[in-house]
Structures
1.
Amino acid sequence: MALVSEESSKSQSSLGSFKTLGLDPRILKSLRKLKWESPTAIQASALPLALSGKDLLIQATTGSGKTAIFVLPMVQKILQIKESKTKEAKSNSVLALVLCPTKELCIQTEECFVQATKTFPGIIVFRSLDPTEAKSGVFSSLEVQFPDVLIGTPRQVSRCLSSFSGKIIRKVKLVAIDEADAMFSCGFEKDLRETLSHAGRNFQSIVLSATLSKEVAIIKTLLPHNLALVRLLNQELPEKKQLKQLCLRVQHKTAKFCVLLHLLKFEKIRGKCLVFCNNIKSSYKLKLFLDSFKFYSCVLNDQLPFNSRHSVVELFNSDQYDIIIATDLAAQSFRSEKKKHTDQEFSLSRGIDFQNVSLVLNFDFPTDSSVYIHRAGRTARGAKRGTVLSLIMPSDEAALTAVQERLKSDSDDATEESENAVEDYFVDMAEVDKLVYRVNDVLSSLSNKTIRSAQLQEIHTELLQSEKLKKHFKKHPSDLVAVQHGNNQTGSKLKRKFEDISEFPEYLAPTKLSTSDAGIEEVQSDTRGVLGESKDDGGAWDRKKAKKQLQKETLDYYKKLGLLKKGKKQSRNKDPLKCL
């Protein structure tokens, strides 16, 4: 996670610079090397208070640079302690503690400390707890010397404290709790209470959250001092100029696949795209669907091992994939999936730094407005612009209304006649309907067995790529052969099966293609964005006539390719495409 220095809503000149904050010259040198000249609006408001030792509760939009608000004061405080000749400077104890809800966020926070101490490495020791050590309960890396800054999830830190009888954080001077509203939903209430009980009562607290929920109010009661609230404009998401929020209404599940294929195939979407689904099965089905049309993507969910998740994020951030299909733990709606072995120290919409995301697509709309807020926060980070597009079915209307009301109450001009934050988006549904046959052909092949095989294939791939198993495979080559034999190659089979269907003839292309550089093209059209709904006024489009014309054109095209069986008469009432 990079510490953001660009400002999205205010000019840089009005926010001053880091020099005016009284930071150590070595920290300022590191910031200059990283070209961080001016603080963001929330940094300019909160950093002076944090540096003066105030206990803070900070609410700001995701991507606004909240991490710097506790990283810089921690580095400053530890430098001052180490230069003093007090007992604290000589004692072997943790001076600062950072609690994060996910393992991925812990690693990104550690990277922030690396960036902030780039010009004076080694003076301050900071360490993110090893997930393997936390799982085993044996912290061999901490036995020689405790770090100055300890970073981990509440569960990891709680296990660490039990190994060292809680002595490790008794002299802690500063405690930061990042993404506080996610702590209880990840199941960390008990661990958080145990951790804070070992920290004494003489420390500065900094609590950060994108939303103010009941969980945050409970966390405040666990801390020794009252927290001063710092927030800007009571706004949970960036302004409309920076973040566009759109919704496209469809009537059924198949319509979602048609619309997404239309947007991708005809380049209505440009740049990197983060797609959210509400359950793991849906995410793998969508991946196989996109693979069939040669839009390659990667899947990220809580059932993948930590190293695999970290690898997927790195591949996406290094531009090896433009589409990532994510499943957020908080949005899963199937009880059967919750009973499986999942990693509670993981959440897709919380804290993970997906770089340069142009579009967040809610393929499945979340039932909770807080989940929507955090999903939308994956784009339009810093000064960059972004778009959120949600595909809305009739069953999602109530959840969309809740999001609209929440965002309307957060805006400054919250009046009854004010515009909705999430605006309607329209596409030419006549063009989208041309893809129905191809979409149904692919979806009919994606049975539950096929989707399950795709999940097993990923497990086999992870086994083959595992660094820990390489030595085992050298000693036991028969095991390697067994794993390779078990790789069912589901994705490759589908690609070969639908190799021809991924090539679109000219008559399926829309009359006007996108010319936008990034994000999603704005289509100016009067067509209602509901698949299967006709428009009766102003030169009505005859859907049945268009369907027959499409069938005739498609049939002629396949005849040219020689794909139809000759000599067989087709029934009048039978769809001519069924003979394929």
2.
Amino acid sequence: MEPDSFTSALEDYARGQHRYIDSIIRQLQAPECKDRYMAEILQRLRNCVSMLVREHYEVVVGAILAIDWTNKSADVIKAYHAFIVNLISAHSIYTPSVLRALVGLFLPRSRGVVPKEGILLGDLEMETRRMREQEMGHVHNVLISILKAVPTAVPMLLEAIKQSCPYVLHKDSSYLEYFIQNILHTSTYCPTIRADALSLVIEKMIYLDVRASRERIEEAESDSEDEEDTELFHMETDLDQSQTNKRRNRLDEADRMDTVMCIFFSYIDKVAKNTDGSLNWEATRKLYLELLKHFEKIILPTYECCHTQYLLFYLVSLKQNLADGFMDYLWKKVKNPNEHQVYRKAAICYLASFIVRAKFVSIRSAADAVSLMCQWIHQYISTVHHNSMHNDVVHHGTFYSVVQAVMYILAFRQREFLDMDKAESFFLGLSLQTIITCKLNPLRIVLPVVARTFSSFVRKHQLAFCDAIMERNNRLIVPTANESGEGQHLESYFPFDPYLLIRSSGKISEIYRMFEGKAIVDMKLEKSSNDEEDEFVKDEMRDCGSYQTKTPVEAFLGSVSPGFNTNSFTLIG
């Protein structure tokens, strides 16, 4: 086709004679269209781009945007790239449509690699992913050129991303995986959208996270183990299948969450680390501040969020200053009387769990944190009106939560505290006996497993004595927050309980602390004979909730959260 005839065909199209241009579009959209022909048409459209006003050629432009070009030859990709940039430079009104079309390519298409004889399934999947990444590279190159040519396109790009975001539980789990991977990559060359992009991703993660509760994940893994036990006689077949199953979580929501966590951890490494592996402090600091805002707005208010918070756990592990800053942020929120009690209690749960679980939090930092908590507790006791000093979780919820945090931290890291220089003066400065004997009676409100383990620790080392108070508490009928009896104990929420997602656990296992040593339980509080220990344990567990472990020691090893056991640790170490 001669250039003049192509121009004439476009002019005819504007006059209502569509046959010739429609024929060209059908050929471009046909799967068997030759790359050479497609590149030639795109080049001619580029030369006539000034003619493509929206009034007459909106349908033509829409058809060009819909053609499958990312897997074509280098000539086609180059011609398409040039045409798109020229189009929006000449007609900025097409920018939203162009961006929607490009962002739509973030989602996977049905085509894939054609299987060949002798090719393993794993190799085929890797080849499909390689081709997919290569195609997305072409899309991002076009987006970069658009943002350079039209800087005002940034808000339109963000809007296109929000409109194109797939349903979290789409039947094809790769939709969410590829989309999140691409929008995070987009934020690396368009930093102005990063805050909104991170917010969008974290909201999707929370949606998955609350559906993949610890109980459901453990139940699914337990069912998987039962299935393997029932098929013991098919040894060879089941061995391979078992190994495959262990690489992924059995619960679908957990497996999807695992995939997203892997993507986000890789994104953090990409942003925070230089090519030689060293830390890019300025980039890391900026990312931390942005994630902290999303933590405050989205993660912290979410009840029983299981894994999303590990994004910050991993990020702050890269630099001690960040870990100290995170603890300082949480403590300021706890002691701020203008904060709602719900957020203050959540913040102290995060702080206590972070201090005991993060290997990169030194015992000196933990001791400083405990000292600050005890100072706040003593000040609270001295300022509370005498008439209001009764067991009321509603009014004194923050106080009880801070006391529980102190007990939890001291019991969990007891060996390290005892091995500190000047450990004796440290414990004397805490005035633990004053705290446990105050009229607010915290030993009656904190979780029984925490109280028992703390009591055993402080009794052995004569730091404080809790037995008489705990015995008396067992005999008392304590006023509750409501008639149903709720409110007698604090809720058992420890955000950094063991990490249950299998594939992404590698990023956490090396920086995660497990309980070491032995929690000492004094059986004389209810039973004097060791032979009656099992009965005591059952009674104790009924007080705490439906624990699956056999002893309070085992409950403390895995977590103090009801229903959480030591088997969870096998996933990360």
